[in-house]
């Protein structure tokens, strides 16, 4: 016997947040094709665009109360393309291919690190401390590689002579993603609350510095963030030792 129409579960997906996820996925795919065609600056730029879109889809879902398990899984798949595969391919085509097998090994380390990072994040989502990420977030890792390519192309540097630097950077981002270093998540910042006027001025100055020279400033910002993980982890461990010792 068929169920009454009102008792049937409505099938489908929420359109608005998944549009942002699809746009981020497209940016990652377009970054790969742009790199293959030798348009490295565009490839780096669209990876940063994917970061912005990736940050918006979850917030849009929460604001519109359209969170879903499908959206969470789709977001992870899009992140793997945009922040795992795309930066690895861009770095390989731009520079690492000159190193032969070591080059594709370095690119694979980043791609595999991105996949493992996302899988661990999903598995620990219910139990993890929301204030910190375990391992370098994949968008930040992708931003370091994209920023490096963007800075180099901005100054007319070819990827071949920088191949070993690119390899070290690519392997390092892959390993940092699967490390146990703690990174501040910024999730406890209340964007809807009131802040002192000086904070608004500081934010304005930060935007001004970034837009003054986006390649250098973005690369430097995310490179510093990657370095902050080991430092933060050491500070937290020291605090725990002091607390256990009762000093």
Briefly characterize the structure.
The protein has 247 residues and is mainly α. It is built from eight helices and two strands.
Provide an overview of this structure.
Helices cover 71% and strands 2% of the residues. The chain is an all-alpha fold. The chain has a single domain, classed as Four Helix Bundle (Hemerythrin (Met), subunit A), CATH 1.20.120.1760. Helix 3 packs parallel to helix 5. It starts with 14 loop residues before the first helix and ends with a helix. The relative contact order is 0.11.
Topology:
Elements: H1 15-36, H2 40-63, H3 69-94, H4 101-123, E1 132-134, H5 138-154, H6 163-177, E2 182-184, H7 197-212, H8 214-245
Antiparallel strand pairs: 1-2
The assigned CATH architecture is: Up-down Bundle
Specify the CATH class.
Mainly Alpha
* Tally of DSSP β-strands: 2
Which outline best applies? globular
Q: How many angstroms does the end-to-end distance come to? A: 71 Å
CATH superfamily: CDP-alcohol phosphotransferase transmembrane (TM) domain
The class by helix and strand makeup works out as mainly alpha
CATH fold type: Four Helix Bundle (Hemerythrin (Met), subunit A)
Radius of gyration of CA atoms, rounded to a whole number? 20 Å
Helix content: over 70%
Structural domain count = 1
Order of helices and strands: HHHHEHHEHH
Order of neighbouring strands in the sheet with most strands: 1-2
């Amino acid at each position: 016997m068929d169920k009454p129409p009102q008792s049937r579960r409505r099938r489908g997906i929420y359109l608005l947040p998944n549009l942002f996820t699809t746009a981020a996925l497209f940016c990652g795919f377009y970054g790969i094709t742009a790199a293959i065609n030798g348009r490295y600056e565009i490839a780096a730029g669209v990876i940063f665009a994917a970061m912005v879109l990736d940050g918006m889809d979850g917030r849009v879902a929460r604001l519109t109360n359209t969170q879903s398990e499908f959206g969470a899984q789709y977001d992870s798949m899009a992140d793997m393309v945009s922040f795992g595969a795309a930066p690895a391919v861009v770095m390989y085509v731009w520079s690492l291919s000159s190193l032969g097998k070591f080059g594709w090994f370095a690119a694979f380390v980043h791609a595999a690190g991105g996949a493992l990072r996302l899988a661990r994040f999903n598995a620990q989502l219910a139990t993890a401390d929301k204030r910190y990420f375990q391992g370098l977030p994949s968008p930040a890792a992708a931003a370091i590689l994209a920023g490096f390519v963007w800075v180099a192309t901005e100054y007319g540097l070819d990827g071949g002579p920088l191949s070993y630097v690119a390899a070290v950077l690519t392997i390092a981002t892959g390993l940092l993603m699967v490390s146990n270093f703690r990174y501040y998540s910024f999730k406890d910042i209340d964007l809807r609350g009131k802040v002192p006027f000086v904070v608004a001025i500081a934010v304005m100055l930060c935007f001004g510095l970034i837009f003054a020279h986006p390649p250098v400033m973005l690369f430097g910002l995310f490179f510093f963030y990657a370095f902050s993980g080991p430092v933060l982890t050491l500070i937290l461990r020291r605090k725990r030792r002091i607390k256990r010792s009762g000093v």
